[in-house]
């Protein structure tokens, strides 16, 4: 087939959505270009374990070129798309114009600070592989500094971690961090009293993992509290500064470590599309995941505001994967001059790990908790993790820490500036990386 | 035993030398403090494999606290020693004074630029775990940029790697890089012609791995050239700038990637010791590894200029390990009021890997090359690597790449600045990290 006659599909973003489109289009007559600012795909559901020093960053990432290199008609460009110019039907990437016939926007989401003062400057996000490593570095550095701090107030400050947001990410990270601290770090830092270490999990709503509710939410709270996590419900953050976190009820929690998992918002690059952008950054799409008014621009994943029974679909991996597959199928049908049915989301349920032997799952309406839920959680995560070696290494790490109560990844790496104390720059983690 | 009556040994540096002292002193009556600016020990002999995307940085590093936590009398401080104040018998670390009775200086070495202009600014060192990751990021980024470069001259520039120094590190890295490029990267970047990619290995002397000489040096050169490496002997670098490398014979090699493995020099912190510092930064020690004139200050490893049959011992791991063990034994003897014999280095030989199935070794005068040497190389490196899980993961990675000709670690991580192209900062690698 003549390359010049092939229609070109540009996919922006190599997350779950984008990659599934590419996979579906492999071997078709389309000329497909995947563009991402990173040269790897990140398996975000396990990112919190990178921050908890459980697994290595390399183990939840796969080079995009490795994934697409068996798809003869799919190419990869590592770069940031700086603009979508629909009028000319091009995207601008690395200063060059790249023409498309069809555009799939799968750029995902970024942290949403809900305009609360100080969140961007004083909290750690947990959205990218870099974030995961920076947070790991920061927490381990706080322990090192605490071990050298004379003053008990400063020590307590360094050993207080506040996690804002009681959704799945906040819960999973709180559980993993509690186990990191009560296990390996307690053995590594015998000089630190156990009492001084506090993990807060702050949730504005009435329940942890509110989407599950009822018995699963209560079980989650009970298990986290058993691990020593202080769960504060109905607690909203009013601001943050270098002292710590200020709650609306007047409480001040002094800390150097605030992890923000309270919400995300859609992220889109500069464009000339006449699209309806909601306050949460998402863009309303029609029942074919198309931007209304455009026949050749699709949005999938976190960025897409897709209404399902009148309510927007959640910003989670299964939605992105299903929409990615759908768009691939739709484009293949278009090639044959066929039309397909509107996208229909199949809710396969969800799951949240709380720690060793403890998880909650809700599958096909069936609510499970405890050991069986935990086994299901492990099985599903290994199944979806890309790359056989990644699966193997993550499994070994998990078995290792299960048997030995040990997490041996806990390196402060890389030191990102030449400050001899290594602290000034790590204190707020991101300051010197940006 | 009363803690206050214990004599305190401070060990600066958690490399091979420092850790072996600590290990030897575990369970003795000494109060031992190990100080290092990193919270991990790095297994430097495999660092080049991190840069060649063969193994993950976490796999050649072990948290120091994990290593020393079973030694009840050994503590760890993560921090940089900024000054040794012998007059007061203290070291200054993180702004505090820490008193010692005995001091072991094992701070190792840094790159030696031999005052050649441009080396520090325009070349990549390969001495620390950070260096290893930065170089990996840089090389992979050059390939990404080349795949997007229109102009063939710029493309060739990006695909030229110059390694300066034909010692073990230079040879091992050249071999590993050649395999990375001819294997995975060739498959990942089908758009890049193979011809455009060039690896130079530049050596000022007459031979590669000159310490072996003869048939082993020739074999090494032959094998590297078979892999496509251009070996330039008797070639000295006169300067470097942003264009590339200038050789003394007038040759200019245009490149963005110069790796400097041509030599190291001792590194010592500020101090009031009256010691004899050589031009190469090393400090002459007596036959007990003591600084002449001081009964309580020892120097071991790369920093120590120890004369063995009139010649200084090389700056390699086995010397540091043997000296570390020796100082531990010496201090234990001192406690009992005994004296021990002077330090005697036992040369167990050396080994250099060139690539798949290819290595050279010289053990007890016996010179081996090829497959058997390679098996010995693997066995010895796994044996000395600290941590069972590290051994396991490195073995799996090696078996993996052996069977599949695949190296799946090749992530550009972390992106260290917010430049959308990610290139400005990676172009010279270190610029934004420092």
Descriptive account of the structure:
- The structure is a homodimer.
- Chain A has helices spanning about 15-25, 45-50, 65-70, 120, 130-150, 150-160, 170-190, 215-225, 315-335, 370-385, 390-405; strands at about 10, 30-35, 40, 60-65, 75-80, 80-85, 90-95, 95-100, 100-105, 110, 125, 160-165, 200, 230, 235-240, 245, 250-255, 255-260, 265, 270, 285, 295-300, 305, 305-310, 310, 350-355, 360-365, 365-370.
- Chain A is an alpha/beta fold.
- A five-stranded parallel sheet of chain A has the order 5-2-1-9-22.
- The termini of chain A are far apart.
- At the A-B interface, strand 4, strand 5, helix 5, helix 7 and helix 11 of A face strand 4, strand 5, helix 5, helix 7 and helix 11 of B.
Give a quick summary of the entry.
The structure is a homodimer of 434-residue chains. Chain A has 434 residues and is an alpha/beta fold.
CATH architecture of the largest domain in chain A: 3-Layer(bba) Sandwich
Assembly state: homodimer
Fill in the CATH topology of the largest domain in chain A. Answer: FAD/NAD(P)-binding domain
Domains of chain A, number:
2
